[in-house]
Design a protein that fits this description.
globular, two-stranded antiparallel sheet, mainly alpha, 11 helices, 315 residues, 70% helix
Length: 315
Amino acid sequence: MPVSSLPTPWIVAGALLVEGVVGWPRRLSHPVAWIGALIAVLERRWNRAERPERARRILGVVTVLTLIAVAGGAGWGVQALAAASSFWPGVALLLVCGATGLAARSLFDHVRAVARPLKTGDLPAARLAVGMIVGRDVEAMDENEIATAALESLAESFCDGVVAPVFWFVIGGLPGLFVYKAINTADSMIGHREPRWRAFGWAAARTDDVMNWIPARIAGALIALGGAGGWRIMWRDAGAHASPNAGWPEAAMAGALRVRLGGPVRYDGVMTDRPVFGDWAPPSAHDLKRGLKVYGVACALLLMLLIGGGFAWPR
């Protein structure tokens, strides 16, 4: 029996289960780190201050095309190897390699690492943990600010780390998954508005926006379903976010938990104003725990969609 006889959604569901149960061994270098190393090399060589802005923007486009070629080629090679293998070794190869592009377990673990000390009132430990997943200043955060930061990261990363990789895995197999991870990594590294990256990272940021457009809305819908109350706030507030995508899962999480997310935060000592999602009080440690439950339900709903989709998948 060839590996191709299995519907792609079932392969993706299996990879999601593998990552959810096993996770990624911390002692092993993750493939995303390899992508990051390539991006860092290209950025050092091509994004030089003496180059004109137009040249840096063009080289940023070339960087994105290089990442697509390298990541897509690697995915195609692994998928071809799996297809040429006997059934079970081929399936195992697809599941393991697919799991490397998903982050359901690692996201849960990172946010739970914030929730545990926050629940006991250990603010220094909670600040340290939340500083691992957000870029804002954490030194003076109180309980509500820590819970807000963690919930926003949980919601947005549910799209970037779970729904979007699953979406592109289903659409494009391992090549689609690997390309998405490469583009998303590039956006996180160079897709910034600061002068150093504004021109060079433009293509990475815009490509990431396009690739996340549908997944962000799926992620928001799953969170709204998981909390059974996020629809109104999602539809009302999602468009207020500076990102065309991040507002959907964040607003859905605010509505699902009946809390207020967003609002002013401090980056590198500078206060930045942001829109507010929701009409209620800021979240507490208890709400962060509830948010993890909503996230778990949303992941389960996604898994059910994949399993059901496999029955309708063309053979």
